[in-house]
Amino acid sequence: MKTIIPKDFLEKINVGKVLRYAIYLVVLLVMQNILFTQLRIFGVCPMFLPAAAVAMGMFEGATWGPLFSLLMGIFADMAFVENTIFFTLAFPSISFASAFVSNFFINRRFFAYMGAAILGLLATAGGQLLKTAASDTFSMVMVTTALLQTAWSIPFAVLAYFPPARLSRLE
């Protein structure tokens, strides 16, 4: 009987790295859903999952970064009941954009990452703002909330940089 999966399929995939990233994703989602929901300033929780999508895109490239971000987005959409498929679409897009930019225009150092992470956080907050504005009425308070969420998420974006930077060097 002929198998569909090629013989060298598992040789091309670094199973150890995939398992380490799976553990990293579980830790990210647990921190986001259990710990960071308790840290509120003016009713706004920090959201560092877009920064993790940026880090995965920068360090794992345009294939594996968006794939891990897609999985993270699916589980994030399951955790946040107000979103249907927003994170599933946004996180791989942010990850692919950061992979593209880091391959051709910026380096993979911390300050370049922080700039890309801030843009990813702003894009996610802006997408949430537009989604809410499309279903409700628009208010300038929504812009303040989006900017406050982004500002409150920046310190936690630092946490998302170091694990992918370290995991990308492991073979």
Notes on the structure:
- The protein has 171 residues and is mostly helical.
- It has a single domain (14-163), classed as Arp2/3 complex 21 kDa subunit ARPC3.
- It is 75% helix and 0% strand.
- The chain is built from 6 helices and no strands.
- 32% of the residues are buried.
- The model has no long low-confidence stretch (mean pLDDT 86).
What order do the helices and strands come in, and which of them pair?
Elements: H1 9-12, H2 15-35, H3 49-79, H4 86-104, H5 110-135, H6 140-167
Helix pairs in contact: 2-3, 2-6, 3-4, 3-5, 3-6, 4-5, 5-6
Structural descriptors:
single chain; 171 residues; mainly alpha; Arp2/3 complex 21 kDa subunit ARPC3; 6 helices; globular
Question: What is the chain-wise order of helices and strands?
Answer: HHHHHH
CATH class: Mainly Alpha
Largest sheet: none
Shape call: globular
How many helices does DSSP assign?
6
Rg, rounded, reads 17 Å
* CATH architecture title: Orthogonal Bundle
* Proportion in β-strands: under 5%
Helix content: over 70%
What is the terminal-to-terminal distance? 34 Å
Q: Outline the low-pLDDT stretches.
A: none
CATH topology: Arp2/3 complex 21 kDa subunit ARPC3
The number of distinct structural domains comes to 1
Secondary structure category: mainly alpha
Mean pLDDT: 86
Instruction: State the total count of DSSP E strands.
Output: 0
